[in-house]
């Protein structure tokens, strides 16, 4: 009888241990599933939310801007400056629309600036992954001029957007939009020639800073006005 009681007690303990293991396994499975679903939802939200995505990207670039690699640090700071300028332009444009200010062709110019900024950011990103230190330094130097120029254009656009609240001169807005459009076209043309060189780095040999083409961004030849026609002097006739 004692053997039967011992066997019954052992079977009870075995069943209890099995139930505990089963409960623990189910709990861990539910917890793992919840973590996986939560992570997936977070990643999906980050991808869909431009605000969260830009915040994460800004944080990453800020960390890279303090690395020991001088060229990598400069490239990261250039990308960070581009993003901050683009964000500021978006805020200025949204404020102009919200206040009902006249904007003329400036929204179209802003779209073109954003496209040029994305293209330049891709080139800076590729330069960050360049394994050759000398080439990476050369790229950091050559791309800095274009980054500064694009940031300057974005600043001029924001200035025109803010000044539109004080002056409703449609002709002035149109002239400002055309001026910025011409400069953006020149910048994009230089970008195309920059990517199309045999070396890929702005010069035929593939090294050194690219030289801007003639008429690039404000260096365009001035138009000559037609000579004034002299009127006949009645006293001499």
Characterization of the model:
With 237 residues, this protein is an all-alpha fold. It folds into two domains: 25-64, no CATH class; 69-195, Up-down Bundle (A middle domain of Talin 1), CATH 1.20.1420. Helices cover 72% and strands 0% of the residues. The chain contains six helices and no strands. It has helices at residues 2-48, 50-64, 70-98, 106-128, 133-163, 170-195. Helix 4 packs antiparallel against helix 5 (133-163). It is elongated. The termini are far apart.
Summarize the entry for a quick read.
The chain is mainly α and 237 residues long. The protein contains six helices and no strands. The protein folds into two domains: 25-64, no CATH class; 69-195, A middle domain of Talin 1.
For the CA atoms, what is the radius of gyration?
Answer: 32 Å
Strand content: under 5%
In the predicted model, the low-confidence regions spanning at least 5 consecutive residues are: 197-237
- Quick check: average pLDDT? 72
CATH topology of the largest domain: A middle domain of Talin 1
First CA to last CA: what distance? 151 Å
Question: Count of helices?
Answer: 6
Fraction in helix: over 70%
Top CATH class of the largest domain: Mainly Alpha
Largest sheet: none
Q: In the CATH classification, which architecture of the largest domain applies? A: Up-down Bundle
- Shape descriptor reads elongated
Overall domain count: 2
Total beta-strand segments:
0
SSE string, helix = H, strand = E? HHHHHH
Structural class: mainly alpha
């Amino acid at each position: 009888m004692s053997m039967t009681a011992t066997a019954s007690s052992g079977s009870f303990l075995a069943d209890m241990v099995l139930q505990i293991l089963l409960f623990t396994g189910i709990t861990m499975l539910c917890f793992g599933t919840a973590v996986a679903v939560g992570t997936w939802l977070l990643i999906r939200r980050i991808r869909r939310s431009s605000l969260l995505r830009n915040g994460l990207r800004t944080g990453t670039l800020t960390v890279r801007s303090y690395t020991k690699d001088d060229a990598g640090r400069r490239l990261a700071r250039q990308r960070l400056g581009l993003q901050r300028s683009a964000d500021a332009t978006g805020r200025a444009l949204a404020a102009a629309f919200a206040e009902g200010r006249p904007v003329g062709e400036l929204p179209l110019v802003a779209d073109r600036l954003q496209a040029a900024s994305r293209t330049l950011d891709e080139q800076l990103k590729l330069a960050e992954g360049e394994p050759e230190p000398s080439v990476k330094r050369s790229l950091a130097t050559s791309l800095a001029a274009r980054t500064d120029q694009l940031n300057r254009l974005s600043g001029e656009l924001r200035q025109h957007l803010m000044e539109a609240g004080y002056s409703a001169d449609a002709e002035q807005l149109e002239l400002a939009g055309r001026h910025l459009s011409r400069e953006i076209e020149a910048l994009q043309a230089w970008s195309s020639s920059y990517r199309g060189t045999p070396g890929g780095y702005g010069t035929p040999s593939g090294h050194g800073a690219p030289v801007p083409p003639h008429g690039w961004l404000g260096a365009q030849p001035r138009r000559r006005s037609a000579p004034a026609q002299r009127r006949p002097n009645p006293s001499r006739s």
